Amino acid sequence: MSVTTLGTTPRQVQRVSECGSPPVPVLDRTEAERRAALLKAVADPVRMQLLSIITASPEQEACVCDMTEAVQVSQPTVSHHLKTLVDAGILTRERRGSWAWFRLEVDVLADIRTFLA
Predict the structure, then answer these.
(1) Buried residues in 43-66 as b, exposed as e (16+ CB within 10 A)
(2) Which of 79, 2, 18 is nearest to 46 (CA)?
(3) Is residue 96 part of a domain?
(4) CA 104 to each of CA 10, 17, 54, 58, 107: distance values in angstroms, whole numbers, following the listed order
(5) Are 65 and 101 in contact (CB under 8 A)?
(6) Which of 19, 26, 86, 111 is 20 to 30 A removed from 67 (C-alpha atoms)?
(7) Residue 90's domain spans which residues?
(8) For residue 35, is it within any domain?
(9) What is the DSSP letter of 19?
(10) What is the full per-residue pLDDT of the chain (117 aa) written as tens digits?
(11) Domain CATH code at residue 84
């Protein structure tokens, strides 16, 4: 029996368990790893605070200078957390003068919402 998966490629699922449960879609391993990396990137209280600041800001962007005091951790710690979010593709970084501005990648956030629904 052919089953369409939630990942990018369908794969055959003969039987899920010995008890005879019907076949169910199986998430492709590569897609599961991609989703887990996104969730891992947001699974931190400080990163959730930073995302909430950026999401609530005009044009969904904020300067690092405005976030440090708001989350009450040091600037290097804020920068570390922002880098994690940038590396995951959730934020983009733009240098403006001596400050770094971070913008939410709304498509990635929508993707996370989709697979959590």
Answers:
(1) eeebbebbbeebeebeebebebee
(2) 79
(3) yes
(4) 31, 41, 7, 11, 9
(5) no
(6) 111
(7) 44-116
(8) no
(9) T
(10) 333 344 555 555 555 567 777 777 888 899 999 999 999 999 999 999 999 999 999 899 999 988 999 999 999 999 999 999 999 999 999 999 999 999 999 999 899 989 888
(11) 1.10.10.10
Give me 117's structure tokens: 């629904």
| Structure token pair of residue 53 | 């600041």
Cβ atoms of 103 and 92 closer than 8 Å: yes
**DSSP letter for each residue of 55-98:** HHSGGGEEEHHHHHHHHTS-HHHHHHHHHHHHHTTSEEEEEETT
Q: How many domains are there within the chain?
A: 1
The residue written with tokens 């005879």 in the block is 20
